[in-house]
User: Fold these one by one.
Assistant:
Number 1:
Amino acid sequence: MKAAVFYGSRDVRTEEVEKPGIEDNAILVNVKACGICGSDLHMYKLGLFNEMLCRPLEQGGIPGHEFSGEVVEVGSQVEGIEVGDRVATVSMGGMSEYAPVTVIPGFNVIKMPPEVSFEEAATLEPLANSLHAAMRGNPVQGENAVVFGAGIIGLGVVQCLKALVPDFNKIIAVDVSDNRLSMAKKLGADEIINASAEDPCEKIPKIVGSAPVMFQPTEQAPAVDIVYDCVGYIKDRPEPQVIQQAISLARDFTGRIVVHGIFEENVSLDLLPMIVKQVDILGSYGFMPPEPEQAMELIRSKAVDRLGLISHEFSLDQAKEAFEMQCNVNDSVKVLIKP
Ligand SMILES: [Zn+2]
């Protein structure tokens, strides 16, 4: 069968490899669509995390952990899944014609309702991540949120806030790509800020207002209830660190910061404002049941539009081009590979 094989930094080749067999607790999926994730880019560019992200081969490994397809084989211990089922899955090795998936019920294999397309279902994993991140912040009616990073996760956070929290006050999206920001606006962000042109820490208090800090009354803190950091730390970007900006933007005492973006390097931070304002910093990683099922229902009911986020589609033969396009953050949102 054909597969995209990752060998090292910026080295992905489409090759013939052996068709995989399955264990008793697994299914074999004929892959129809597979997304390239932000984490795949850390791997593609820097060679990071490949043991977590690739199905290993004797040489190199097959990336792709968010994909959809048709079940063609079912292991003897697997219950509730049949040959012919259409599924969205989270596993490894999705950038190939066939991928073995060890089934963790309710978690990594979700059956697709008939009205959901393979393309939409390939975006289920990032949506489940966004849903998890959005809810970690405990958003409630009337609050303001700032979402740093209008990639697939940040845009999904905007979608989940819009779909699930009634009467949210303001959602402000910050990114460095005008393209992605206009997408954020389309999906429901009330305000957008291009951080390469304007300082979010100056502009945001003008949008949401600010109030004195209880233990430092000469200082003002913006009325931002939740900051979502869907950027993390990307080496060699000239902009100030998002996590530091998040700390200065969070509201006194009840402000929360949800960190989902990955850090490519250790960073040094001024934590004093976090301590004085008593801000909560919350990590967010992956998702937990029943979030994948909830995410599928958000897609099925059209509470969120995932097709609009798919900016490019490539064949397996064009895997390298697909990765390069996903690296081009200005022009791409979600790139799919369709074996
Ligand atoms: Zn992912």
Number 2:
Amino acid sequence: MKQRIDDAQIDRLANEPWYVSSRASQKDRFARCLRLLAADGFSPQQILDVGCANGQFSSRLTSLGQTVLGIDINNERILDNQRRFADCDRLRFEQADFLQRPFAAGSLDSITALEVLYYFTPEQQRQFFQKAYECLRPGGRLLVSVNIFFSGHFSEASFLSTVDPRFRQLQADRIYRNYYYRLELPVIEWLDQLNYLEKLRIFSPNILKLERKFYPGIWNELLLRPSGVMDRYLLPGLRRLLLGLIESDPLYHLVTGLTRLVAPESGKSQLIVLLEKAKCEGTW
Ligand SMILES: C[S@@+](CC[C@H](N)C(=O)[O-])C[C@H]1O[C@@H](n2cnc3c(N)ncnc32)[C@H](O)[C@@H]1O
């Protein structure tokens, strides 16, 4: 019988500075990833968790797979995990670089790599997907998640172009988290004077945090960090809200003269993709 390692145990064992275990958004991310991997009753024997860091997701994977191996290039993390999870005999940790460590072809039921691939160059991402394909058994699944920016070099399209074309994409999920509005500095000051930021907070309780980042130059970011999970349907609403607040002001024309809202193109989301290796060669 599988020995279930529950959330309370994971929280107790967690020893990390990012409060991953206690953050609702992180728990939600892990839960979504587990759900996706388990779709259609997929029940893997061996799972490899690449870039396991503090083992938060690896330990959760024991609810799904019979044995889980977490690897990370960071030896400090691995030693710490080995100590903390010493009692969990279906969970092992090893220091290794996925691109270097040999795995027998077709030996794994499932591979997960959450928030790891943006450490890689596009060429390394290609190598990662090719190698993952070789290591998986036919019908095996690869689950990856990455931060995607709505603009710039790390877009969804450029990331997906590195996926080995032999994979079939089964499902994808997106978690919208940070939403940036770019405003010119005078506008931020103007909004401050008019108490717009306070108004925003009152009108939109979903905004957990409003931050301003100041960079040299004229462009500055107003970062709206929503609480919990940012639904894609909420984003247009937020944009309307901010525009509406600006437009409702009698000095609207002056403000719009200074303002350029860039949204949601400058936002960030997490993309989760579930890929499957062909059950037999040439089936799709
Ligand atoms: C942002 S952490 C993600 C941790 C965890 N997967 C999660 O989603 O919470 C990325 C981890 O990937 C590891 N990593 C980077 N390149 C790697 C490689 N080539 N092989 C194994 N681990 C790697 C890093 O050391 C780091 O601990």
Number 3:
Amino acid sequence: MGFTLTGPSLILRPPGPGDAEALFELASNPEVTRWFSWGPYTELAEPEAYVELCAQQREQGTQLDMMIVDKQLGPAGIIGLSEFSYRDRRCMVGTWLGADFWGTHVNRESKALIAHLGFERLGMNRIGAYSNPENERSTRALEAVGYVQEGVLRDWHRHDGKYLDVNIFGMLRGDWLGGEQAAVEVAIEGEIPPAFLR
Ligand SMILES: CC(C)(COP(=O)(O)OP(=O)(O)OC[C@H]1O[C@@H](n2cnc3c(N)ncnc32)[C@H](O)[C@@H]1OP(=O)(O)O)[C@@H](O)C(=O)NCCC(=O)NCCS
């Protein structure tokens, strides 16, 4: 059975080969991938390779990317957990959405679903996030759902040979329990990929 997280208006599930075309549509817009080391997609082979990589990462327990599907409007983007430290019970969250979904319920609800998975099922105590200091939209979108900005990590990323600072944010389990994100109803069906249950 497939693994899904279902909320009031969204379903999160691992991306499969049948999602490559939708991913291509969503991330061939340069505005969407502007802050990333990859993209915009210019050929279908790129999201096809990404979907394969996701399957390997699920198998290895290194990264858990999920397709965000709006129950009415269809595929909206990707949200994922990465950089796991099981000793410290922490990981990072990252999100990208097709431009039509910016400024809608999708950022808030997808972050609530993935936070539920991280804190309640994977036993995390902290979920962190990064934003480029110039990406004010992303910074605001994280703060709006309860992530606390903790500082700036200097030269943290290297894109095209250039080092970039990032803002670092965190949400602790206690912050989550006391905030609006934990109040979102989530149903989990299917098996959580076993490599993440440590
Ligand atoms: C980051 C992302 C997931 C956020 O989702 P979103 O739906 O756009 O977020 P929201 O609309 O809920 O929140 C954005 C906030 O930034 C504000 N905002 C938008 N553009 C802004 C700008 N140029 N400067 C400052 N604030 C801005 C919005 O008004 C909103 O604030 P509000 O909640 O106070 O009204 C989405 O924009 C996206 O996929 N961007 C491209 C990929 C990306 O950058 N991902 C993040 C990598 S760190």
Number 4:
Amino acid sequence: MDAADLDAFLAKAAEFLESNASRREVRGEWGVGSDVLAAYAKVSEEVEAQRIADARQWKALEFDQGFGWITGPPELGGRGLAPEHERGYLELRADYDIPTLSVYTISLGMVAPAFEQYGSEEVRNLVPKLWRGDLIGCQLFSEPTNGSDVAGLITRARRDGDEWVIDGQKVWTSVAQHSQWGLLLTRSNPDAPKHSGITAFALDMSAPGVEVRPLVMITGGTEFNEVFLNQVRVPDNYRLGEVDQGWKVAISTLMNERALGAGGADLFGVNQALLRLRMTIQQVGASGNPLVRNEYARLYSMAETIRYQAQAADERRRAGMPPGPAESVFKLANTNTLTQIASLGLQLCGGAGVADTGEWGKYAWAELVLMGAGMRIAGGTDEVMRNILAERVLGLPKEPS
Ligand SMILES: Cc1cc2nc3c(=O)[nH]c(=O)nc-3n(C[C@H](O)[C@H](O)[C@H](O)COP(=O)(O)OP(=O)(O)OC[C@H]3O[C@@H](n4cnc5c(N)ncnc54)[C@H](O)[C@@H]3O)c2cc1C
């Protein structure tokens, strides 16, 4: 790829965005537009339904115009371009007011790559529909007794001819209530060592025996769910990878999950929160306070460091290296930075930050603080990320088992 190709691509991307979305003229203006910062904030059912309809419409348009799956293989409907093209597009897009796309984060970050890499032809045929946003996928890993220890899962899969029969329960499943497909891990061989007896499947969420029950989060939102699986029959054709080799699928999915923060889409909302922090500092008249200035500069530097590290991750991807344990640093650094930004924002707003007085932009900080607690757990807790970095990247001694 040469620089001219990239420039030509970005010029086309700018044209597409200019004709289909309006610029965020109001970026940086206090009191204008929605003040919500937390992706899991409480919203009414009508607002949620409208959000998803808007997101669907945008994803279809983006895909049909060639900007929906920039790095994907052309035979599946992707553009076959490099990560720089994707990052460049996402950076341009950040200046436009487009629908919130968080309902697709897991679907595109984890489910679609697993279906593409490990699925039968029938499952791989779903991949373009996931990227176009026609379908949404969820990740069915965690169980009531196994979260950090994913390999300890007990949801059972028993083979019955050309089908499998699944019984068990998953929990904390984000967007399951909006999903048509799930990436499911099951225990297919209880006698094998725990990492060797797992089989992964693409699960049709409308199959008889799948029951989804939303859970209320600390923010009041209902982003995640319990999923009950009662005698669910899954064709063997929906198996992902080999029988009893589902740990491979799990590991590559978890690596993709932890690498999400390396994308250029500000998926964790760090840049958005930083911008709002600057606005809040000005709004409460703290711009001249040296302690606040110092703290803002420190947080800004953390966000910039993540951005440069993400560029290094792009280089690794371009060199053909799949995401590895080092990518855990993105999950840790993004959530760490976000929670520190939220904490300063909340302190600056005093009482109006803690109690919802209806004042624009202030209580949004409390919602972000609450959401931050969930983000430090979701996709691998801080402690687990630190273990991975310590043991698998830095080569420090393993903790005693
Ligand atoms: C907002 C949100 C969305 C989520 N979405 C999904 C989803 O879509 N799909 C899905 O499958 N799951 C999802 N999860 C679940 C998430 O992956 C788990 O909650 C997480 O892995 C932790 O598992 P656990 O809750 O069972 O806690 P546990 O594993 O029981 O951990 C409890 C505590 O022990 C600590 N701990 C555990 N093991 C170690 C260790 N070896 N060393 C040091 N400390 C340790 C943990 O850090 C934690 O503080 C979501 C969670 C949240 C909060």
